[in-house]
Amino acid sequence: MLNKNDVIPLYVQLKRILRSQILNGVFKEMDLLPSETQLMKEYQITRTTIRKAIAELNKEGLVQQVHGKGTYVRLRETKDTVWNFQSFSDLARRHNQKPITKVLEKETYSKDGDHFLKLVRLRGLKSEETTTWMTIDTSHLPLKIFPNLEANNFSSTSLYELMRETYNIHPHYTNLNIEPMMSTPLICDRLELQEEQPLLRSSGIVLTESNVEIERIEIIYSPNFKFKLSQYIHS
Amino acid sequence: MLNKNDVIPLYVQLKRILRSQILNGVFKEMDLLPSETQLMKEYQITRTTIRKAIAELNKEGLVQQVHGKGTYVRLRETKDTVWNFQSFSDLARRHNQKPITKVLEKETYSKDGDHFLKLVRLRGLKSEETTTWMTIDTSHLPLKIFPNLEANNFSSTSLYELMRETYNIHPHYTNLNIEPMMSTPLICDRLELQEEQPLLRSSGIVLTESNVEIERIEIIYSPNFKFKLSQYIHS
DNA sequence: TAGTGGTCTAGACCACGGT
DNA sequence: CCGTGGTCTAGACCACTAG
């Protein structure tokens, strides 16, 4: 299970195990996670380490710790529609739906001597017979970092999985600006909106752990995408 | 300094001390906080407790821990323009400006037999000779919880300080929806905007630690208010 | 009362940054 | 090399929840 000699900290290893178990349905909504004492025995590590892993899952909104009762799995909690466009497939799973991606544009271009791939994708959720479009994602990706990326079919492959598994590059941090904007006829058409209306838009960059810029992105959100924000007040 | 018998955890006490020192200028931008070892000696508590306090300040974006170097004070960091409307005066201090509040409406009303205060405030930042309007805040406050609240002059008093100090009620958690909207002539007039344009708006509730609803709020953001979002990608 | 998570101690070893 | 923060151990006591 855990590798005590790995460079990856134990609490990160545990966190990943628990997260994948939750997202893959080993634990279901409202289930209790094994207690911290049980996890101590199961993984042979101390409670401090376990608590650090669970605390981070808590921060992500995936579980909720309740004093005296236990740690609950929270799949469809308040925080599920926040900014985690990054894990669109997780978002879908949380809604018990399937993620759908339609590639609208895919072209390479040059700028300042470097080559890039521009990728425009329409993303949505599908349940039974209805499809709900959620966002239009525009990505600019440096081919110097991702050679031959344009050969991929992005409608069935997750961009970030591709980065991690094919190129061994791990998206780590994103820096975005959020702005309002008016819809355009093209956007209305793509998102299947009946009338022009104000929308939310975010744009920014994605970095690796060593602060290498690996993507510039713009995301336009359909009104179907409900932004919720929960935060603690520092005092 | 710290009271080991207080019901308030030591790490919370320490966090509050450090935060107020940072915001009051005892430590300045780019300064190093005392090292964890120094803080151990100074406060006579273990490193674990100190690290918990600093980790939370880190999460708030007030400090940045750097391996091998120390913990830096970060006043004007990326996260400073995020959703922390709550601490408008801190936001101002971080920008080296003064917070300004103008009361636009103040009236009591009844609904379902309960009495409320409706408060509309225009909020901005002032530096030297220029004033920049940032938000229009509309609050609905239950007078059952805050008796006689309407007697206050809100242009010079912080609403949350009032809650804490006069009523001993501590805002703890907020749950908001974020939406785009079109400006109206009234809003343009109040925010001194030249033309109609899409804006951001958030609305929701503020709760205490025991989940008592103490405020309903709506905030309309001027384009001067730049929303930035920084987040880690879970993987 | 038994079991849970919340806080805290007093250590240890490590990886990183700069001298 | 030393001082910094990062991880981890093996305990302890407490507060909360529920039967």
- Architecture (CATH level 2) name of the largest domain in chain A: 3-Layer(aba) Sandwich
Largest sheet of chain A: 6 strands, antiparallel
What average pLDDT do the residues of chain A reach? 89
Number of discrete helical segments of chain A: 6
Which CATH top level class of the largest domain in chain A fits?
Alpha Beta
Q: Strand-residue fraction of chain A?
A: 35-45%
CATH fold field value of the largest domain in chain A: Chorismate lyase
Count the domains of chain A. Answer: 2
Tell me which oligomeric state these chains represent: homodimer
CATH homologous superfamily of the largest domain in chain A, by name?
A: Chorismate lyase-like
- Any low-confidence stretches of chain A, pLDDT <50, length ≥5? 78-82
Greatest interface by residues involved:
A-B, 41 and 42 residues
What sequence of helices (H) and strands (E) makes up the elements of chain A?
A: HHHEEHEEEHEHEEE
> Structural class given helices, strands, pairing of chain A?
alpha+beta
Round the Cα radius of gyration of chain A to an integer and report it: 20 Å
Give the beta-strand count of chain A: 9
Protein name (chains A, B): HTH gntR-type domain-containing protein
Organism (chains A, B): Lentibacillus populi
InterPro entries (chains A, B): Bact_HTH_transcr_reg, Chorismate_lyase_/UTRA_dom_sf, Tscrpt_reg_HTH_GntR, UTRA, WH-like_DNA-bd_sf, WH_DNA-bd_sf
Keywords (chains A, B): DNA-binding, Transcription, Transcription regulation
